[in-house]
Amino acid sequence: MNQFISVKDVSNIDSLVQKALDYKANPFKDKTLGTNKRIGCLFLNPSMRTRLSTQIAAQNLGMEAIVFNVGQEGWALEFGEDAIMNGNTVEHVKEAAPIMGKYFDILAIRTFPSLKSREEDYSELYINQFIKYAGIPVVSMESATLHPLQSFADLITIKEVFKEARKPKVVLTWAPHVKPLPQCVANSFAQWMNAWGGADFVVTHPEGYELDGQFTKGATITHNQDEALKDADFIYVKNWSSYQDYGKILSNDQSWMLTNEKLKQTNNAKVMHCLPVRRNLELGGDVLDSANSIVTHEAGNRVWAAQAVLSEILSKM
Ligand code: CP
């Protein structure tokens, strides 16, 4: 592996999951793999889990991790190819990225979408500019359209928790929210579920919240949440803004919020969410406080997901 931008960078999903679980069982087994190597973790947007889990993962492999909150502490970056920089941007990615490439061995980046231009966001302009100009392996810590470290941790969690000799039914359900959120987590989860192929995968959302078909192709898609939840083994709860009417909130229908009452129609489903979650808006507090919630377990697995990915990249250096 020489970059980690999406599931397409993974040659064998099941063996990468096993690698992550091996690290979970023995976190320091490769504690010298990253000796004298440095990862730069660039955040253009806020984070808790991704930042901490990636730092811990790097340290478990003997790497030094340097975090740079570009969005708060750095010069405002310009990404436009022929931009005349007479506005608020101070430094072009064409200078910044190769400098990062000289300071670090791996570059990890978080860069959210603007939710203003679908064309620009779905071109992944920002992360692609870093890939083009840094000259070192790039790891996505959430880009404009995908969050692969999250989805990988989600898959690890499903495979770890589900012990039956059949395919689990996994449901991705839209949830209400007051802010327009990116489609990244939902896109990425759908992409990983479909690429893995080990689940009966269902996506449910109100009309107008259809995700980009390149990620959901292969899933069953329904606007009937109750029908989707029936006999579910896992429910992945997430809000996203509209892809069609790009970046807009089309519904705030609270009847879509998952509650313990709704869980009764499932197969005692385990409930997942990438976090942070707004209680009693996006997901019922009764569910989060119940034994069905595995959200903190899932967040714990972010370390092993990041460690397996960094290990794969380090082994090819
Ligand atoms: N799930 C996730 O990426 O969390 P953070 O935004 O806190 O990193």
From TrEMBL:
It catalyses: N(2)-succinyl-L-ornithine + carbamoyl phosphate = N(2)-succinyl-L-citrulline + phosphate + H(+). It is an enzyme of class 2 (transferase). Carbamoyl phosphate binds at S47, M48, R49, T50, W75, R110, H147, P148, L149, Q150, C274, L275, R302. InterPro entries: ArgF'-like, Asp/Orn_carbamoyltranf_P-bd, Asp/Orn_carbamoylTrfase, Asp/Orn_carbamoylTrfase_sf, Asp_carbamoyltransf_Asp/Orn-bd. Pathway: Amino-acid biosynthesis; L-arginine biosynthesis. Residues 185-311 form the Aspartate/ornithine carbamoyltransferase Asp/Orn-binding domain. One of its GO terms (biological process) is L-arginine biosynthetic process via ornithine. GO terms for molecular function: amino acid binding; ornithine carbamoyltransferase activity. Residues 3-160 form the Aspartate/ornithine carbamoyltransferase carbamoyl-P binding domain. Keywords: Amino-acid biosynthesis, Arginine biosynthesis, Transferase. N(2)-succinyl-L-ornithine binds at E142, H177, K238, R278. Its EC number is 2.1.3.11. PANTHER family: ORNITHINE CARBAMOYLTRANSFERASE, MITOCHONDRIAL, ORNITHINE TRANSCARBAMYLASE, MITOCHONDRIAL. Homotrimer. Belongs to the aspartate/ornithine carbamoyltransferase superfamily. SOTCase family. Catalyzes the transfer of the carbamoyl group from carbamoyl phosphate to the delta-amino group of N(2)-succinyl-L-ornithine to produce N(2)-succinyl-L-citrulline. Is essential for arginine biosynthesis. This is N-succinylornithine carbamoyltransferase. The gene is argF'.
